[in-house]
Description:
Elements: H1 3-64, E1 72-74, E2 80-82, H2 93-112
Antiparallel strand pairs: 1-2
Amino acid sequence: MNREQMIAVARNLDELEVKVNQLLLITLDLRSENESLRTEKADLRAKHQSQVVALCAEIKRLKKKPCNKSDRVLRAGGVEKKCKKKISKKRAPSHASRYNTHNEKAQKAMSQA
Length: 113
């Protein structure tokens, strides 16, 4: 191998070393970006999980909400259910008529609201 060939090989080695160093820097940047994306993904997953837990708790609370007299309760499925006070057969008819007038007043109040 003559002197010119040795100089050309040395230049090629220097160029290759520079390219390898550039590739190492790029690899380190990609690793750090990958790690930051992983932490961001974990944070989003935890945030969404907490939102799901909160929504499930709200649905359970709405399902268990007691019905008041002549109250309209929105159920989890979006169905509006009207709660009525049951009149037993033992009660007098006068009581039933009082209940009906109370129910009409409540309906008027609900329509105005």
